[in-house]
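Data deposition worksheet. Section B asks for the primary sequence of the deposited chain exactly as it was used as input, without tags or linkers unless they were present during the calculation. Section C holds the resulting structure in token form. Section D is free text for depositor observations; keep each observation to a single sentence. Incomplete worksheets are returned to the depositor.
Section A, Depositor: J.P.
Section B:
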Amino acid sequence: MLFEALGFSNVETFIASGNVIFDSKASAKALEKSIEHCLAEALGYQVTTFIRSTKELAAVARYKPFAAEPEDDETILYIGFLANHPGDEAKQKLLSFITEVDDFHLSGREVYWLRRKKMGESEFSGARLEKTFGMQATFRNSTTVRKIALKYP
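Section C:
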């Protein structure tokens, strides 16, 4: 496996979600660059990576950005992971996208997106967020994030 070849230990993927869990003593930024370089060589295209420690991921999973958790099958909370903190202008632009279908909250390098209807009824997307912030992001369902945080305390 590519991550083992990079010298990481305890390498494991999680439910085919694009998440790889591993142990390393290197800094997150150094890891991101190293992994991105190796993935580009192996796959032939650029793959942006987003590193979070187990402690950071646990905090993200515990965070409650909205007063009430989703209670129906159509309402889903997504968590968008960013490499850097977005600027104030980007934050304000994101908040301008709030509608009765979509609500947003920003905390650190994570964007919390509460979508209250089916995906096709929302005018928002990960691509729109990337354009707004001028940086790449990756979204995960909050259920997936919580399962990872519970499995890797």
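Section D:
The first strand starts at residue 9 and ends at 14.
The chain has a mean pLDDT of 89.
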